[in-house]
């Protein structure tokens, strides 16, 4: 007898609420097991004949596979520093995906506790992107944002000369500094990726 089949039979009998009392009971139990096993094979056979699709063919999984395929390469995003616009405690800059030619809007919000809040969304999306609301008890208190320096390849924004943000144009990169020095870098390895809305492909 096949060892795997023997293990299945032993497991089956161990899980029975009442063990067979005689040879006839064992025989009937084996018949029921055989019948259940045959039905299982029929179901498995049907499943195996169904047309299966790969993950890359499905919308949700294609998003995951695209991001999983991201490697540390030169960034596909550049910041159009000439598009900078300041509005009291907010700054707006266009960030462009040069591979897909998709313009994004980088929104920088200065907060009173020497912090920055960053939002990125499509500038001309196919539809309005959902914005999470009521996640906080109240919106963080904002503070005026200042343009400290503007060059061809970078600009510097800040709350003051110490708490500042350096935005590099090509490739797009963002560095934050405080009184202790450099704090964090965004897109330092060129792996930033924004999943823009796409039109549904029809067959």
UniProtKB/TrEMBL annotation:
Q: What residue ranges carry the coiled-coil annotation?
A: none
- Record's InterPro entries? Gal_mutarotase_sf_dom (IPR011013), Glyco_hydro_31_N_dom (IPR025887)
Q: Where is the Glycoside hydrolase family 31 N-terminal domain?
A: 106-201
| One Gene Ontology term from the biological process aspect of the record | carbohydrate metabolic process
GO MF, one example: catalytic activity
Q: What's the protein name?
A: Glycoside hydrolase family 31 N-terminal domain-containing protein
Q: Upper taxonomic classification of the species?
A: Eukaryota, Metazoa, Ecdysozoa, Arthropoda, Crustacea
């Amino acid at each position: 007898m096949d060892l795997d089949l023997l293990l299945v039979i032993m497991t089956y009998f161990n899980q029975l609420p009442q063990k067979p009392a005689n040879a006839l009971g064992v025989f009937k139990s084996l018949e029921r097991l055989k019948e259940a096993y045959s039905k299982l094979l029929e179901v498995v056979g049907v499943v195996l004949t169904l047309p299966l699709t790969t993950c890359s063919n499905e919308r949700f999984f294609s998003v995951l596979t695209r991001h999983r395929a991201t490697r540390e390469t030169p960034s596909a995003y550049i910041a159009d520093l000439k598009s900078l616009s300041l509005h009291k405690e907010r700054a707006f800059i266009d960030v462009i995906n040069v591979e897909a030619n998709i313009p994004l809007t980088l929104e920088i919000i200065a907060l009173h506790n020497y912090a920055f809040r960053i939002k990125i969304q499509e500038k001309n999306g196919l539809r309005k992107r959902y914005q999470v609301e009521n996640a906080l008890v109240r919106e963080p208190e904002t503070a005026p944002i200042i343009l400290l320096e503007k060059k061809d390849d970078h600009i510097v924004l800040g709350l003051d000369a110490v708490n500042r943000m350096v935005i590099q144009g090509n490739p797009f990169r963002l560095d934050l500094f405080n009184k202790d020095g450099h704090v964090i870098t965004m897109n330092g390895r060129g792996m930033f990726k924004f999943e823009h809305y796409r039109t549904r492909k029809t067959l």
